[in-house]
Amino acid sequence: xxxxxxxxxxxxxxxxxxxxxxxxxxxxRRAEYAKKKVVTIKHHIDNRKSYSCIVSxxxxxxxxxxxxxxxxxxxxxxQLSKEPIDVIGIDEIQFFPEAAIDVIQNFLDHGxxxxxxxxxxxxxxxxxxxxxxxxxxxDEVIKLRxxxxxxxxxxxxSQRLINGEPAPHNxxxxxxxGEECYEPRCRECYQISH
Length: 194
Description:
Helix content is 22%, strand content 28%. By secondary structure, it is an alpha/beta fold.
Protein backbone atom coordinates (compact mmCIF):
# COMPACT_ATOMS: atom_id res chain seq x y z
CA UNK A 1 0.00 0.00 0.00
CA UNK A 2 1.52 3.37 -0.99
CA UNK A 3 2.38 5.73 1.83
CA UNK A 4 0.16 8.82 2.08
CA UNK A 5 1.93 12.03 1.08
CA UNK A 6 2.13 14.51 3.92
CA UNK A 7 1.92 18.24 3.47
CA UNK A 8 4.31 20.94 4.59
CA UNK A 9 3.63 24.32 6.23
CA UNK A 10 6.07 27.17 5.67
CA UNK A 11 5.48 30.43 7.57
CA UNK A 12 7.17 33.62 6.39
CA UNK A 13 6.89 36.34 9.03
CA UNK A 14 8.42 39.62 10.10
CA UNK A 15 7.70 43.33 10.32
CA UNK A 16 6.39 45.64 7.64
CA UNK A 17 8.90 46.14 4.79
CA UNK A 18 10.89 43.01 5.65
CA UNK A 19 10.24 41.29 2.29
CA UNK A 20 7.55 38.77 3.33
CA UNK A 21 5.46 39.06 0.16
CA UNK A 22 8.60 39.07 -1.99
CA UNK A 23 9.73 35.79 -0.36
CA UNK A 24 6.27 34.27 -0.80
CA UNK A 25 6.23 35.20 -4.50
CA UNK A 26 9.74 33.79 -4.95
CA UNK A 27 8.76 30.44 -3.42
CA UNK A 28 5.59 30.23 -5.52
CA ARG A 29 7.56 30.93 -8.73
CA ARG A 30 10.05 28.18 -7.81
CA ALA A 31 7.17 25.74 -7.25
CA GLU A 32 5.85 26.54 -10.73
CA TYR A 33 9.32 26.00 -12.21
CA ALA A 34 9.16 22.55 -10.59
CA LYS A 35 5.89 21.96 -12.53
CA LYS A 36 3.70 22.13 -9.43
CA LYS A 37 0.13 23.38 -9.63
CA VAL A 38 0.00 26.57 -7.52
CA VAL A 39 -2.93 28.58 -6.16
CA THR A 40 -2.41 32.02 -4.65
CA ILE A 41 -4.73 33.60 -2.07
CA LYS A 42 -4.74 37.02 -0.44
CA HIS A 43 -7.00 38.60 2.14
CA HIS A 44 -9.42 40.99 0.44
CA ILE A 45 -8.82 43.65 3.11
CA ASP A 46 -5.39 44.33 1.58
CA ASN A 47 -6.29 46.33 -1.50
CA ARG A 48 -3.47 48.89 -1.20
CA LYS A 49 -2.01 48.39 -4.67
CA SER A 50 -4.38 45.84 -6.21
CA TYR A 51 -7.52 43.97 -5.25
CA SER A 52 -6.69 40.83 -7.23
CA CYS A 53 -2.87 40.73 -7.07
CA ILE A 54 -0.26 40.35 -4.38
CA VAL A 55 2.07 43.30 -4.92
CA SER A 56 5.32 43.54 -2.97
CA UNK A 57 6.82 46.86 -1.90
CA UNK A 58 9.47 46.28 -4.58
CA UNK A 59 6.82 45.96 -7.30
CA UNK A 60 6.77 42.19 -7.85
CA UNK A 61 3.24 40.97 -8.35
CA UNK A 62 1.15 37.87 -8.89
CA UNK A 63 -2.53 37.23 -9.54
CA UNK A 64 -4.30 36.08 -6.39
CA UNK A 65 -7.81 35.18 -5.36
CA UNK A 66 -9.03 37.69 -2.75
CA UNK A 67 -10.88 36.02 0.11
CA UNK A 68 -12.29 37.37 3.34
CA UNK A 69 -12.95 36.08 6.82
CA UNK A 70 -16.55 35.03 6.21
CA UNK A 71 -17.80 31.45 6.25
CA UNK A 72 -18.28 31.42 2.45
CA UNK A 73 -14.62 32.33 1.90
CA UNK A 74 -13.50 29.57 4.27
CA UNK A 75 -15.65 27.08 2.32
CA UNK A 76 -13.84 28.15 -0.87
CA UNK A 77 -10.54 27.48 0.88
CA UNK A 78 -11.73 24.06 2.07
CA GLN A 79 -12.74 23.15 -1.49
CA LEU A 80 -9.12 23.67 -2.60
CA SER A 81 -8.02 20.68 -0.50
CA LYS A 82 -10.05 18.41 -2.79
CA GLU A 83 -8.62 19.82 -6.03
CA PRO A 84 -5.43 18.67 -7.78
CA ILE A 85 -3.32 21.47 -6.35
CA ASP A 86 0.20 20.98 -5.04
CA VAL A 87 1.00 24.35 -3.44
CA ILE A 88 -1.19 26.99 -1.79
CA GLY A 89 0.28 30.42 -1.10
CA ILE A 90 -1.55 32.81 1.24
CA ASP A 91 -0.49 36.41 1.85
CA GLU A 92 -1.49 38.61 4.82
CA ILE A 93 -2.36 35.50 6.85
CA GLN A 94 -2.69 37.58 10.04
CA PHE A 95 -6.06 38.89 8.79
CA PHE A 96 -7.66 35.45 8.44
CA PRO A 97 -9.88 34.11 11.27
CA GLU A 98 -8.99 31.33 13.68
CA ALA A 99 -11.06 28.88 11.62
CA ALA A 100 -8.40 29.17 8.88
CA ILE A 101 -6.02 27.15 11.09
CA ASP A 102 -8.22 24.04 10.69
CA VAL A 103 -8.46 24.68 6.94
CA ILE A 104 -4.67 24.86 6.67
CA GLN A 105 -4.34 21.67 8.73
CA ASN A 106 -6.78 20.06 6.29
CA PHE A 107 -4.54 21.10 3.37
CA LEU A 108 -1.57 19.51 5.12
CA ASP A 109 -3.54 16.32 5.78
CA HIS A 110 -4.29 16.18 2.04
CA GLY A 111 -0.58 16.40 1.18
CA UNK A 112 -0.52 20.06 0.12
CA UNK A 113 2.44 22.37 0.58
CA UNK A 114 1.14 25.55 2.23
CA UNK A 115 3.20 28.74 2.27
CA UNK A 116 1.81 31.65 4.28
CA UNK A 117 3.20 35.14 4.81
CA UNK A 118 2.19 37.69 7.41
CA UNK A 119 3.02 39.96 10.29
CA UNK A 120 3.94 38.06 13.43
CA UNK A 121 3.48 41.17 15.61
CA UNK A 122 0.99 44.02 15.46
CA UNK A 123 1.99 47.67 15.86
CA UNK A 124 1.91 47.23 19.68
CA UNK A 125 4.51 44.42 19.40
CA UNK A 126 1.87 41.86 20.40
CA UNK A 127 1.37 38.49 18.62
CA UNK A 128 -0.89 39.10 15.62
CA UNK A 129 -3.95 36.99 14.85
CA UNK A 130 -3.42 33.33 13.96
CA UNK A 131 0.28 33.72 13.13
CA UNK A 132 1.58 32.50 16.55
CA UNK A 133 -0.38 29.24 16.20
CA UNK A 134 0.86 28.76 12.64
CA UNK A 135 4.43 29.36 13.81
CA UNK A 136 3.96 26.62 16.41
CA UNK A 137 2.74 24.02 13.89
CA UNK A 138 5.00 25.07 10.99
CA ASP A 139 7.51 22.73 9.40
CA GLU A 140 9.64 25.73 8.44
CA VAL A 141 9.72 29.30 9.79
CA ILE A 142 11.37 32.16 7.93
CA LYS A 143 11.66 35.28 10.11
CA LEU A 144 12.65 38.28 8.02
CA ARG A 145 13.85 41.65 9.25
CA UNK A 146 13.63 45.10 7.74
CA UNK A 147 16.07 47.96 8.25
CA UNK A 148 15.24 50.51 10.95
CA UNK A 149 14.56 53.87 9.29
CA UNK A 150 15.94 55.71 12.33
CA UNK A 151 19.32 54.05 13.01
CA UNK A 152 19.91 51.56 10.19
CA UNK A 153 20.01 48.45 12.42
CA UNK A 154 17.86 45.38 11.80
CA UNK A 155 14.20 46.06 12.54
CA UNK A 156 11.66 43.59 13.94
CA UNK A 157 8.82 46.01 14.63
CA SER A 158 6.22 47.90 12.61
CA GLN A 159 6.03 51.44 13.97
CA ARG A 160 2.58 52.87 13.26
CA LEU A 161 2.54 56.60 12.64
CA ILE A 162 -0.24 59.16 12.86
CA ASN A 163 0.69 62.52 11.33
CA GLY A 164 4.34 61.48 11.53
CA GLU A 165 4.19 60.64 15.26
CA PRO A 166 4.09 57.20 16.95
CA ALA A 167 0.52 55.94 17.31
CA PRO A 168 -0.90 55.58 20.82
CA HIS A 169 -1.40 52.10 22.26
CA ASN A 170 -5.21 52.36 22.15
CA UNK A 171 -5.46 52.70 18.35
CA UNK A 172 -7.37 49.94 16.53
CA UNK A 173 -5.24 46.91 15.72
CA UNK A 174 -5.92 46.67 11.98
CA UNK A 175 -5.04 49.59 9.74
CA UNK A 176 -4.05 48.58 6.23
CA UNK A 177 -1.41 50.91 4.86
CA GLY A 178 2.13 51.37 3.65
CA GLU A 179 4.85 53.99 4.03
CA GLU A 180 2.26 56.62 4.93
CA CYS A 181 1.29 54.70 8.11
CA TYR A 182 4.22 52.47 9.06
CA GLU A 183 7.98 52.42 9.44
CA PRO A 184 10.25 49.52 10.32
CA ARG A 185 11.97 50.11 13.66
CA CYS A 186 14.46 48.27 15.87
CA ARG A 187 13.81 47.64 19.56
CA GLU A 188 15.73 50.77 20.57
CA CYS A 189 13.98 53.15 18.15
CA TYR A 190 10.45 51.77 18.49
CA GLN A 191 8.06 54.04 20.42
CA ILE A 192 4.48 53.85 21.65
CA SER A 193 2.52 56.02 24.06
CA HIS A 194 0.25 54.38 26.62
